[in-house]
């Protein structure tokens, strides 16, 4: 088996941790919804985070969403660990979708007239764009592409 690049190992571990966090959210959504709401609001400073979207799903859909995300992130994590090329391609597609979303976000914010309250989301947009661009660049690098190519028998 080809050696896995360090960055791919890090991405895989982060995705496994992401799946584990979704397990926590799924359990809280069933066992203690108030604790789930408190956790989501705690990680959504000033409302700029996942709380509003997650809580708007309702108690019935939240666990289903979390289970789907456990499966999705778990499969992506395993795919990166095993160097399955489709996981790299899916990640590149997700990065492209994210970049399209961040390109539209400032126009939506301007239309909403958020004023000074729009600084935090704007910083979030810049940081997420940089992370997306760097991750995409890394996944497209020759070393990473070579690691994901099937080895000759």
Sequence-ordered SSE layout with sheet pairings:
Blueprint: H1 6-31, H2 33-42, H3 51-56, H4 58-81, H5 85-112, H6 119-139, H7 142-148
Account of the 3D structure:
The chain is mainly α and 153 residues long. The chain has one domain (6-148). Helices cover 80% and strands 0% of the residues. The protein has 7 helices and no strands. Helix 4 (58-81) packs across helix 5 (85-112). It starts with 5 loop residues before the first helix and ends in a 5-residue tail after the last helix. The relative contact order is 0.13. The model has no long low-confidence stretch (mean pLDDT 88).
Coarse shape: flat
Count of beta strands: 0
**Rg, alpha carbons:** 18 Å
Mean pLDDT: 88
Query: Major sheet, described briefly?
Result: none
Strand content: under 5%
Number of contiguous helices: 7
Q: Low-confidence spans: pLDDT under 50, at least 5 residues? A: none
Number of domains: 1
Derived structural class: mainly alpha
Approximate helicity band: over 70%
Brief summary:
The protein has helices at residues 6-31, 33-42, 51-56, 58-81, 85-112, 119-139, 142-148. With 153 residues, the protein is mostly helical. The chain has one domain.
């Amino acid at each position: 088996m080809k050696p896995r690049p360090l960055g791919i190992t890090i991405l895989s571990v982060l995705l496994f941790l992401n799946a584990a966090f979704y397990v926590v959210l799924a359990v809280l959504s069933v066992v203690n919804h108030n604790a789930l709401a408190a956790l989501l609001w705690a990680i959504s400073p000033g409302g700029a985070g996942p709380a509003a979207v997650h809580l708007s799903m309702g108690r019935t859909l939240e666990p289903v969403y979390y289970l789907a995300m456990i499966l999705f992130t778990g499969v992506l994590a395993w795919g990166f660990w095993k160097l399955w090329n489709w996981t790299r391609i899916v990640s590149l597609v997700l990065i492209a979708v994210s970049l399209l979303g961040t390109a539209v976000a400032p126009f939506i914010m301007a239309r909403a007239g958020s004023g000074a309250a729009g600084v935090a989301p704007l910083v979030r947009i810049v940081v997420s764009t940089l992370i997306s661009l760097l991750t995409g660049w890394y996944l497209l690098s020759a070393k990473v592409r070579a690691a994901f190519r099937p080895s000759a028998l």
